[in-house]
Task: structure prediction
Amino acid sequence: MKGPIPTPDPQHPLLPISFAEGYGSRIRKAVSLGGGGVFLIAWQTGYLSSLAEGGVSLSGAERLIGTSAGSVVAAILAAGGLRRAELQVRLLMAMEPVLGVIAPSPHLNATQQRARDLFMYAGSAEPDLIRAIGHAALAADTPGEGALRRSLALFLGRGRWSSPALHITAVDAYSGERAVFTKMSQVSTVAAAAASSSVPGVSPPQTLHGVRYMDGGVSGTGVHLDLVSGAGKVMVLTLSDGSTLVRGMLTYTRKSFRNELEELEKAGTKVLVRTPRTFDLEAIMDPSSVRIGYAMGQDQGRVDLPEVRKFWNGR
Result:
């Protein structure tokens, strides 16, 4: 199943979350970049920059999954067909002034706060709860859809979808179903990343082919590991693996990531997971967290380089 995952309608690519489908079959190497606000964009960039400086490239990845913040970094990596991934990552090394533009205003009105709080403190991924979050996001009085796209265009340029490896996740804000956008979907990477990054209450759901989509992380997973189930090896960069959580976070339970990981390993996939050493959930959209996240990512990347090289380049 190399190339984009086939869907009944590429323009409205709703795809059930399922490890049984083996969406990643026949893929040798894959990468999943999870969500976590501007903090995680900075951390992932710092981490990947250190790997690239050490000679470890992700150019062999045949599938690249991006969710929310991870969709921005994933689109940048894919822009060069993954062959020039390290150069694309370094373009973000001066990101802090720009991130101040895409970070949301800390002052939310009542309708925005309701949608945001429903998501931030959901603690589960029950379908009715996901739909309630989506309906609150649709009802929230937020800035126009174009604001987020214009900001992301500072990173992604015209947003040409140059690589079939890139898969960006989002959620139908009305039905609560997961969507996976690929090169076949006939949307720009800017539009897809904006949909994947539209945090309920913070940014408005984005309209793609007449359907409005919200953040890919609302679906109960921030990494969508089912999309690489059956792959040979997968590298995952995510905000949290759940091990340090004392309660549910967003629509994830403490065991959500562990359950996904177990299903992936059950399918025979080797997995390497890396997360920031620490983070403040309330500050992940604060531009002041960018410098901290970037420095942390760079340091962790340098420390992890030997292990990542062995994992990624080994058999």
Summary: Residues 16 and 178 are 6 Å apart (CA to CA). The mean pLDDT is 87. The chain is about 40% helix and 10% strand. The beta strands are 29-33, 63-67, 166-172, 178-181, 206-208, 211-215, 233-237, 270-274.
